[in-house]
Design brief:
Layout: H1 3-27, H2 30-62, H3 75-97, H4 103-119, H5 137-166, H6 173-202, H7 223-243, H8 245-252, H9 258-292, H10 300-320, H11 327-350
């Protein structure tokens, strides 16, 4: 048994748990909810062992010692660690608040991250470290960055739930905002699912395609399929806007209040922000000085990290100094995590820079 087998096992467990949590949200059967938690815990334990195994495999291969062999050196390993942090945070919330409805909103983020690995052709092999990564700051900088990302992901899920819970169907801007955001999330999940079925199950192309992501929909060579994809997207957004109130009814049945959702959102950001400030920005700057000879280079990753920092600083300033509460501050939390996703994935995939090694 090696780390790849255990990673595969945890991936299947999380995707399976995601489907069970959504079923639990729809039917409210306690036995279904317990089963979803058991599957999630199995996936988490498997992934924990896998991370330690990969760490040891990397240390044996590189000969750099344990500290410099942390499995956080490429996009695949960072995504795996992000999912591990996210699931850990979710399990803590589930056991603390005794409420499994969060699972239907948090596990899809883990499912998206894992599907992203498979569909984009990200290498899963252990690779030699580039010179910039041979630093003792690697463990602190990357670990703390992804702990904060996971906290921000939790705040995103609970802020979306808050908006669903507190808005009424209609032309209210908050309702339109969350239905569009949630609808886009649904469209991305569906598109990834079609990619998987098309390229991994049904077609299995003879030639190797590095990235399958959106190749069967928005990135398809056929203009007709692209047009159909956008028409379907608009239809999904309209349906979510039209029937989004059903989700509110479902959430209200789980004895969860808007105050609890607001509290979890705030605490997640209050925990994630200082970790991100210290680990992501300050430790990153120190590491950059050692690796590239300067603390700050306005590299795209650095610039978007700073934008992310300002958004969450604005959230905390608005809440703690201005006393903002409710839908307005929840929208800021959603925008903040959108910036996190672009900093994490968008910059690596769409822009070049000093952090380009993170896209491999």
């Amino acid at each position: 048994m090696n780390s790849s087998f255990l990673f595969g096992l945890s991936t299947m467990a999380y995707i399976f748990a995601m489907m069970i949590y959504i079923t639990y949200l729809a039917f409210r059967k306690s036995s279904v909810g317990i089963f979803a938690t058991i599957i999630t815990v199995i996936g988490f334990v498997s992934q924990t062992f896998a991370i330690f195994l990969r760490w040891k495999e990397f240390a044996d291969l590189s000969g750099l010692g344990l500290i410099r062999s942390a499995p956080l050196t490429n996009l695949y390993e960072s995504l795996i660690f992000f999912v591990w942090c996210l699931i850990l945070g979710y399990l803590i919330i589930e056991f603390k608040f005794k409420n499994r409805s969060f699972g239907a909103f948090i596990t899809p983020i883990a499912g998206l991250a894992l599907a992203f690995i498979d569909l984009t052709g990200v290498t899963k092999e252990i690779q030699p470290l580039v010179p910039a990564l041979k630093s003792n700051w690697l463990l602190a900088h990357v670990t703390m960055s992804f702990l904060s990302y996971a906290a921000f992901a939790l705040s995103f899920s609970t802020s979306i739930m808050y908006l669903i819970f507190t808005t009424e169907k209609g032309k209210d801007l908050s309702y339109v905002f969350w239905t569009i955001t949630f609808g886009c999330f649904v469209v991305i999940l569906i598109a990834m699912g079609i990619d998987f079925l098309t390229f991994k199950v049904a077609v299995k192309p003879d030639i190797f395609i590095k990235s399958y992501l959106f190749k069967s929909s928005f990135m398809n060579p056929s203009g007709i399929i692209k047009i159909i994809s956008w028409i379907v997207t608009i239809a999904v957004l309209f349906l979510v806007w039209k029937y989004g109130y059903i989700l509110k009814t479902a959430i209200m049945k789980f004895n969860i209040s808007s105050e609890i959702l607001d509290e979890i959102t705030y605490k997640s950001i209050a925990v994630g922000f200082p970790i991100f400030t210290l680990g992501g920005l300050i430790f990153g700057a120190v590491w950059a000085d050692q690796a590239w000879g300067r603390y700050w280079s306005w590299d795209p990753k650095e610039t978007w990290s700073l934008i992310t920092w300002f958004i969450y600083a604005f959230y905390l300033h608005g809440r703690m100094i201005r006393g903002w509460r409710g839908k307005k501050i929840a929208i800021v939390a959603v925008i903040g995590f959108t910036a996190v996703m672009f900093t994490y994935l968008g910059v690596n995939l769409l822009l070049s820079g000093l952090h380009a090694y993170g896209s491999k």
